[in-house]
Each structure stands twice: as structure tokens, then as C-alpha cells.
Amino acid sequence: MLIVFNPTAGRRRAALLWRVLDVMAANGVRLDLAETQHAGHAAALAREAAGRGATLVVAAGGDGTIAEVANGLNGSVCRLGVIPLGTANVMAHELGLPFAPREVAAALAFGRTRMIWPGIAVGAAGTRLFVQMLGAGFDAQVVQRLHLPLKRALGRGAYVVQSLRETARYRFPPIRLRVDGTACQAASVIVSKGHYYAGRYLLAPGTTPSEPGFTVALFDGSGPAAALLYGAALPLNLLPRMPGLRLLRAAEVTIETADVPAQTDGDAAGLAPLLIRDAPSAIRVVVGA
Fold first, then answer.
1. CB 257 within 8 A of CB 271
2. Going edge to edge, which strands form the sheet with 267-271?
3. pLDDT-derived band of residue 3, with 50, 70 and 90 as boundaries?
């Protein structure tokens, strides 16, 4: 079993990882730990392991690390395991994965799987695979401007602080896009594979990562007041009911407006324009007993 871990995640998360590994090693599980050295390294490590015939590669980290490992495994028969160590852990919540070290170890040992169908975003910077969502507009601006030391210090609270900062900076340009060929416009856009966003907060009811396609959340409200209102509704799970939010199902989305910031699974993903569609194949994720 290969475990891919980002050593810049911080001491607290490294300690959680070692608690899981201690349980697994005590039960006779053979482990190989690979630390990533740069962006994209997790995908390369996973791809190499799958090419060698590995049957399970485990992403130890948050949604961004999971997406990188999934990128390396896409198209292979190798299974994806998860040790949730991220700030939001949206995919872990989406799939109901365990968080306690003993339960995580038991889930990886048992090996029952569930299929997920990732998305891909194609732009000038290349192709990015995402497992949970892509954001364009205000939320991507927050992700791109967020400093790692603040994230380490405050965890999820760092996004609140950065959001307040960006309400005074971001200009909220209108975003032109096509949803299955139909022209639309919004102030911000989230293309989601699941029903949760930013943790265990409801965005797209009824959406499941096991199926092809997306739910596209179009936020019509523009400006600081609207951003603060949407942000206040999120932890109350009231976001899907907010006026000015449209939820559309789609198989393909094109974000046409240039220079709009984008993020995938909580990591900066450059600028639009972007073409968003399903990845070529599904991936089996280990979900437990």
C-alpha cells in the first residue's frame, strides 16, 4: 500500500497520519510512504505506482491531494484510499469516510469501494482533474490570495478572514458561460460533483459524485453585500434556498470570460476561459467496511 503525503501540511496533520499508520503497522499491513516535493508530484507518484501494478494508493491530505492522486490513477484499475487530513475534507464528508485513526485504518484494510466520476477543466494552463468542485469568481479569488501560514494557524477560519479581505478588493466582474450550450451570466460560479461545499455545508441537494455530470451553481448576486449574505447562509445550510442562486444540471460547462480566477478542490487553478466536462473514466474509492 502506497501512502502519498504532503510534508508541508503541518505538524498536527502529520501527527494524525502517524496515528493511522501506527494502527495499520500494528496489524501487519505493509506500508510505503512517499512525500511530495512539488505541485503535481502526487499525481506522478500515483501514476507510477499504478503502472507498477499497485492495487491501492492512499491520499493522505485534503481535497487537493485527493484530486492529484486521483489524477494519477484515472484510467487505471488501482483503487484510491483516503486519510482525511485537510482543512475542509469535503470529499471525505461527501462519501461518509471515517476520521478516527482506528476507523480509517479499518476502512483501508477492509477495502470496500464506491465509484466516483471526477471532472476535468481544460484551459490555457493545461488540464486539471477535480473530485468535488470547481469555483470561478469570488471564491476562487479567496483561494488564490490565501496564504498558507494563515491557513495553518486558523484552519477553516482562515477562509472567513480572507473572504472579508477580498470583499473590499474583488471587483465582481460578470462571468459569461455556457451550460450545455445555453448562454448564461453570473457573478460567481461553482461547478459541483457533490452536494457539499467548503466542508459539510449543503450547496447542491441530490448531487452525487458517483454519477457523470455536474450541478452548476450560478450566483446572480454581485458585490460585497451579496458575498457576505451568501457566506452567512452557508454554515446554516440555507445556501440552496437563497434568492439569486440558480442550480442547473449539466454535462459540459464553458466559462468564457477571460482572466476570471478559478480554483479546483480548494487549490488555485489559474484563470478562465475553461472547458469543464467529465473525466474519461470513473475511479474506485475505498470507503470502509
1. no
2. 245-250, 214-219, 188-192, 133-136, 261-264, 267-271
3. very high
Residue with cell 477560519: 157
Cell of 62: 485534503
Rounded to 10 deg, the angle between the 224-233 and 157-167 helix axes is 160
E strands, the chain, are 2-5, 32-35, 56-61, 79-84, 112-116, 119-123, 126-130, 133-136, 175-179, 182-186, 188-192, 196-197, 201-202, 214-219, 245-250, 252-255, 261-264, 267-271, 274-278, 283-288
* Whole-angstrom distance, CA of residue 208 vs CA of residue 193: 6
pLDDT of 153: 86
- To 5 degrees, how large is the angle CA 219–CA 225–CA 222? 35
CA 80, CA 283: separation in Å to the nearest integer?
Answer: 7
DSSP letter assigned to residue 201: E
Q: Output the nine-digit C-alpha cell for 18.
A: 502517524
Q: What structural domains and CATH numbers belong to the chain?
A: 2-117+283-288 (3.40.50.10330), 120-278 (2.60.200.40)
CA dihedral 65, 272, 209, 148 (to 10 degrees): 30
Q: Which residue, among 247, 169, 241, has the nearest Cα to 207 in the 3D structure?
A: 247
Predicted structure pTM score = 0.95
Compute the average pLDDT of residues 146-161.
90
Cell of 193: 460533483
| Position 233 pLDDT exceeds 90 | yes
